[in-house]
What we know:
Elements: H1 9-18, E1 25-28, E2 31-34, E3 40-42, H2 60-70, E4 78-80
Antiparallel strand pairs: 1-2, 3-4
Amino acid sequence: IYLDAISNFPLQVLDSIFKKGTSFAIKVGQKIVELDENPFELTGFSEQESLLPLDQHTHHAYRLLMEYFCFPEKFNYLKLDLGFLKR
């Protein structure tokens, strides 16, 4: 899922989704199912998702900072785990 918006709105959405105490539910027909866990996952932080070349002498956090300022849209993606639908 890509959060396409202007300014800092995607950050506000991410903050709301991942803050403590947030709960999620889905509605199927007339039935509402509350989810035990947050079905969303942040993306863009793993080394496999890096956009800049990895240097063994550079700390992972430094690469993340560089990517955040060069490619801020990269961090506006979310993964939605639909595994709860099997239950």
